[in-house]
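Notebook entry, structure prediction.
Reason for the run: the old model in the group folder had no record of what sequence produced it. Starting over properly, with the input documented here first.
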Amino acid sequence: MELSIETFKTHVSTLLIETNTMPEFVNITQEVVEAVEESGIQNGTVTVFSRHTTAGITIQEDEPLLLNDMSSMLDRLVPRTIRYGHNDFSIRTVHMEEDECPNGHSHCQHLIVGNSETIPIIGAKLALGKWQNIFLVELDEAKIIPREVLLQSMGI
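New structure, fully documented this time:
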């Protein structure tokens, strides 16, 4: 292992992603690549973080049939059609919005997908495998306001 004394840097940027349906896998790999290039970081990590509880981040293969399989899997594991206490607006008392939609399933699916991924940066490039891509996974109804994804690159 080679050690050198260089200046540690951080770089933060925000992606605004419009979504259309649920579940939807939005490939954001190119945007992350561009943010890492802009950061000037040669070796370190980039963390890709969703600022939402119904839209997650995952690394997966960008193959249409597989993405459809994963959408079906999420629906089988956490179906929209069963009862969720979160959706019972007659008894729920916290975090209510005027235009609230019943989205208990979206929050529960988010437990499976997760909020973030951290990817190594080696030689100013993302160290992704051959088929790996970075996705924002929309689990809720399409939003008028775009989803926010924070990108934080750190390293030398």
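Summary: The domain at 9-81+101-155 is CATH 2.60.120.460 (Jelly Rolls).
The old model has been moved to the deprecated folder.
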